[in-house]
Amino acid sequence: MKLGIVGLPNVGKSTLFNSLTKAGAESANYPFCTIDPNVGIVAVPDERLDKLTEMYNSAKTTPAVIEFVDIAGLVKGASKGEGLGNQFLANIREVDAIVHVVRCFEDTNVIHVDGSVDPIRDIETINLELIFSDIEVLDRRIAKTIRGARNDKMLAKELDFQQRIKAHLEDGKLAKTIEVADEDEQAWIEEYNLLTWKPVIFAANVGEEDIADDGASNENVQKVKEYAKDFDAEVFVVCAQIEQELAELDDEEKKMFLEDLGVKESGLDKLIKASYSLLGLISYLTAGETESRAWTIKKGTKAPGAAGKIHSDFERGFIKAEVVSYKDLMDCGSMLAAKEKGLVRQEGKEYVVEDGDVILFKFNV
Ligand code: GDP
User: Fold this and answer.
1) In testing the pocket of ligand 1, which one of 15, 125, 243 has its CB within 8 Å of the most ligand atoms?
2) Do 119 and 219 contact (CB within 8 A), yes or no?
């Protein structure tokens, strides 16, 4: 799962990206933490995993991870090739969701590319580039579809849909706000992989003084929240500069610093968790002396599919899953006690795995 960080220059993308990967590096202990300077693997914070590690005295703890990509260089005119624009747009096409960083902090030392802090104008500048790029994609699609549409009803229907999306985009609207009429259209729009169809989280980058009340008294943040309502997008308030400082600290120091700031959780932790649920992802857990680990699956995945995340043999030879919910396990204090209380279930192939299930798979090799 991959998330792309976008936004105008100088809004705090790199600062945020660096703190994400730095924080991830320390908690996840991932050797491939920076695959390349713009891609980072980040651990999904999960208290349950820490508790399991304690209960089992596990030698190793492996969290679920998300990949973040810092997509710099999106500027006005990017879709026309300004500043390597097209290359950056191609990078966005590869991600599953977008974190759109918006500058809401005032700081005369940090130049704004358009001369003033105006988050809605900034968002629309970026959106417009994404829309232009999507129109180009549709133009190419339409040119192809049109050839076959005269003799093929299905292609004619698709052509009609493509032209409808194009008109919608030309109105300055995002693909995600179009009404999808039926399953065919749903499948098509998924296939087109349009930039403005991807899920978005706005990260409102505020100054230090605005974190304690979560941006409530920052006018710019309020504007972004109002704006985001129309797309069902979540808005997160972060202070990239503070996150960068937090990323340098160990857990204990971090806790104290957060207390001083008057917040419970770092903005980054909230952002990572939100990204995870935005993508419709959940975690199931495995626990043992060797390793306690969180595994990422899509909501709705059945037991064999979940087993396949560990190893394809587990999926092929799946017999059953021994499942206990994290809460039941903790309430009982041990797996043995949970078994004695009858809280460990034997589940078969049709079982839909839930977030926080602690699972032991039985399989044939
Ligand atoms: P990018 O071009 O979007 O990647 O922006 P950078 O992360 O490089 O940040 C641009 C400048 O803004 C740098 O000088 C940062 O130190 C500064 N900056 C980033 N976040 C904040 C913040 O929350 N508050 C303040 N005052 N400055 C910030």
Assistant:
1) 15
2) no
